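**Sequence, structure tokens**
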Amino acid sequence: MSSGLRSQFSLHFIKSGKLDRKYGALLSELYDWRQKADYGNVFDFEPESVKPRFDNVLDMIREIEKEIAKDLK
């Protein structure tokens, strides 16, 4: 994911009010984690920090799918 994608997501989903702001914060957090994993010297995620995010990520995906379905009608 690029910072451009993150900006577009924010513009079209968060700032437009289609999705809750918490999903913008979640996406930013996940993006930062990915950057650390890809470019950090050695970065290991602890299950205790990752597992609590699963439900939030699934909720975000469901909300995005709902918005896409609305646009396809």
About this structure: Residues 3-72 form one domain.
